Structures are given as C-alpha cells and as structure tokens.
C-alpha cells in the first residue's frame, strides 16, 4: 500500500533542538519594548543653550544691582596723598596742579588725566595714580635726576632725556653738554664713560660737545681742553691716561690743550707764560 504525505499549511511543527528549522517553517519573534524603539531625547543642545542664558541673566542682575548701589558707594574725594622723595618740587605745587580733578567722585575721577597732568610738570619723571577705598586717591611721584645741562636752556637726566625747568640759575655747577637734539642719549653715554676714565687722574668734565661733523670736544674743570676727533674715543683716552701719568702730570698747570686725533700719539699746546706787570716788577725790586 502506498502512503501519500502532504504538507498541511496550517499545521505547526515543533523544531527539534539542535536541528535547523525546515524551510517554509515559521517562528515567533519577541517584540522590543516601546521605550527602546522610541528615539532618545538629546539634552546636549539644551545644556549648551542653558549656560549662556544663565550667564546673561546673572550678568544683567549684577549690573542692575551695581547701578542701584553705586549712588550709595560713590563718595566725593576726601583726600589725595602724595608719596615720593621730592627735592625740586613741593607737595603744595602738586596739589595745586591736580586741584581741578578733586571735585569728581571716587569712581568718576579721571586717573589717566591726572597722571598726564602731573607728568607735564618739568621735574616729574613719572607718576602713578590709583584709588584707595572708600574716598582717597594715592599719587606716587618720581622726580627727574639732573646729571648735566643740555645747551643753555635745558637739563639732562640720567637717561639722556632733556627737560626744561623754569630756572637754571641753580644748576650752573653741572657739566654742560652740547650736540644735535637727536644725539642727547649718545652725548650722555659718552659723558658718563669719559667721566669715569678721567676721574682717577683728578679731572672732571666741565663741557662735552658733539659738533656738526661728528667730532668730540671736551673741556675739564681744571682748564685743559681735549680734542678727541670722531671715533675710537675710549682708545684715545687710554693713550692719554698712559702718557699723562708718565710725562705730563708734573706739567698739568702749564697744559692748555691736548690733541688726541693722532693715530699713535698726541700733541700738547702749552700755556704762554704771563709777562710780569709793572706792579709785580716794583714789588720784586
């Protein structure tokens, strides 16, 4: 007898464990939870927007609070303190110079304008101005340090910068320097170098001049003139120091001028002997 087996579409087969499911069979698939299938919200954009908004709100609140408290904290200037070693100007002169700024309040006082006004005074090299809570202004001053006269109408400080005080009568004892305006610092530097080289020999500089063609002329307080030429000033001064100690020291009072423009030596111009007057002759007789 022959048996005929036919596949029934509606019949279900139970798959055997470990064996592949026959083709055409169906199986049940577990569905994922709804929370997994839905897209997750992105809070990164919200965080990036929250911080700037929070900072804006805080800044606006601080500004409003400051505006409301400012009238109670902003007081009139009650005191201006001046500090610094003042030898050439008085505190009274300083107070008078900045008097127009005192009428302002603590926060509205023009510190930059006050500093510029002070530094326009000839004897003030630099000024520092700052507020001191609750109603004071502190001023620190540094005076000019005059080292020499510059021409006939100004002084030079230790940085080679010229300044012109009202009167130069009290500074005639300072050495006098000359030269083009652009060469102020160069002349000051040469003066400092030459002064140090002449000091061990007992000389001091009374006049130093840089002439138009670039040559240097020096006159000592002891009445000796030095012609230095255009260049190699230090080398020429060393040569003069060596020769002076050996051959010229004993004749110092008779020396009028020394020419150092030579390559390997120097030339000395002697003072002319003073002829005796009739009164001197009578006394001698």
What does this protein structure show overall?
With 285 residues, this protein is α/β, with parallel strands linked by helices. 31% of the residues lie in helices and 21% in strands. The chain contains 7 helices and 12 strands. It has helices spanning 34-37, 44-73, 91-97, 111-119, 184-198, 233-248, 278-284; strands at 79-83, 124-132, 136-143, 146-150, 154-157, 162-163, 176-178, 205-210, 216-220, 225-229, 255-259, 267-270. The chain has a 9-stranded mixed beta sheet, covered by helices on one side. A 3-stranded mixed beta sheet has the order 1-3-2, with helices on one face. Helix 5 (184-198) packs parallel to helix 6 (233-248). The longest helix is centred in the first third of the chain and has 30 residues, at 44-73. The N and C termini lie far apart (189 Å).
Q: What attributes does this structure have?
A:
alpha/beta, 3-stranded mixed beta sheet, 12 strands, disordered N terminus
- Total helical elements: 7
Spatial gap, N to C terminus: 189 Å
As residue ranges, the low-confidence spans are 1-5, 276-285
Order of helices and strands: HHEHHEEEEEEHEEEHEEH
Beta-strand percent range: 15-25%
Categorize the overall geometry. elongated
Q: In which order are the strands of the major sheet placed?
A: 6-5-4-7-8-9-10-11-12
Overall average pLDDT: 82
Beta strands, count: 12
- The computed structural class is alpha/beta
Rg, please?
47 Å
**Main β sheet profile:** 9 strands, mixed
Secondary structure: helix percent: 25-40%
